[in-house]
Automatic annotation (TrEMBL):
Native organism: Paludisphaera mucosa
Domain of life the protein comes from: Bacteria
Family: Belongs to the peptidase M50B family.
Bilayer topology annotation: Multi-pass membrane protein
InterPro entries in the cross-refs: Peptidase_M50
Protein name per Swiss-Prot or TrEMBL: Site-2 protease family protein
A GO term for molecular function: peptidase activity
Pfam families, A to Z: Peptidase_M50
Domain Peptidase M50: 36-111, 113-173
Needed cofactors: Zn(2+)
Amino acid sequence: MRLSWKLGRIAGIDVFLHPTFFLIFLFEEARTRLPLLLAMFGCVLLHEFGHALAARRFGIETADITLYPIGGVARLTRMPRAPGVELAIALAGPAVNLAIAAGLYLSLGVFSTAGMGEFFAELLVVNLVLAAFNMIPAFPMDGGRVLRAMLSGWLGRARATTFAASVGRALAVGFGVYSLLNLDLLPVALAAFIYMAGGAEEAGVLAEERRRGGSVEGVDWSAPAGYRWVQTDQGVWRLAPASAASRASSWGGVR
């Protein structure tokens, strides 16, 4: 059963709010700067729709978007394999924040006349920070996906994912330790999320590449003619006749 609360449906995509979102109100600044906080998460939501709508242009739908205290997550129905497509989708989110910042900059004169110049100037800075922060090469953040996409043509998807995930884990550990020493718990949670999510996606990509008959970690996973690799319920990989593997796939045993 889903724990998140549905906020609505926009452009055919369900938007949810995770219960942990309210942990952000444990911080006094979040309570005293509520209008800016809500505006910031509105920009985070637009950032995620940037990813979702860019993915839709390439035939990839988005199952839903969920807001957490550490940001938002757009859950795509499948991840793009083509490096160029992944690059375009990854850059779409930060591009939205830059577009918002540009719009705010051009409108600051109007907002200042209305007595709201300071608020929108802060929101402009927030969007610049969101764009810059998301471009840090910490997989699976946007910058990490850009790194993976740029390396995929050279190293192959599996090795590029492993490299990007390793960089992401190293940055997450450094960022997490620094934040912990400064008793800043929200960044610690973000670092933990990056570390675990990157590892989980790396494992999924490596398993997918094995199923496709690619070479991973220096091991030749190519299958003889008429055979393919399948994974048993115990997680063991074995060769099986292609026809048998196809039958298993139709029952959900092999994906």
